[in-house]
Specification:
The chain has 3 helices and 8 strands. By secondary structure, the protein is of the alpha+beta class. Zinc ion (ZN) binds next to loops.
Length: 136
């Protein structure tokens, strides 16, 4: 079963920590051992796993991507958001996290971030938990 996480973004470029929502879905599923798949069904957004301890890391990722792939002239796509499409392809629209002992096997400093590149918008993210409810 696929679960949906609604994400409300507030800036054009922004990383939103969705770890808590993903963990809630995992806990409700009762799965102990398996894998968690997170999928973003948008062409100008993405998902990534990176450091949560210092919020400046998420800001740096968003800002450096914008410096590497600037908004503006030089694109063929007439909608004016080609930078966001390129960022979405570079970062990627899906992520996998191992599930062990009924929890996400994230590192101490890791969090799952929804990446907005053409906000602010109302977005969504799909989460599917694959695995077994009894520890093998
Ligand atoms: Zn577009």
């Amino acid at each position: 079963m696929v679960h949906e996480i609604p994400v409300r973004t507030r800036s054009r470029n922004e990383l939103v920590d969705i770890t808590g929502s993903v963990r809630e879905i995992l806990e409700r599923s009762g799965v102990q051992e398996g894998i968690c798949h997170i999928y973003v069904p948008h062409t100008t957004a993405a998902v990534t796993i990176n450091e949560k301890a210092d919020p400046n890391v998420a800001r740096d990722v968003a800002e450096m991507l914008s410096r590497l792939i600037p908004e503006g002239e030089g694109y063929r796509h007439a909608e004016g958001n080609s930078d966001a499409h390129v960022k979405s392809s570079l970062v990627g629209v899906s992520a996998f996290v191992p599930v062990s002992g009924g929890d996400l096997l994230l590192g101490t400093w890791q969090a799952i971030f929804f990446c907005e590149f053409d906000g602010p918008r109302t977005r969504r993210c799909h989460v599917r938990i694959l695995g077994q409810k009894n520890a093998a």
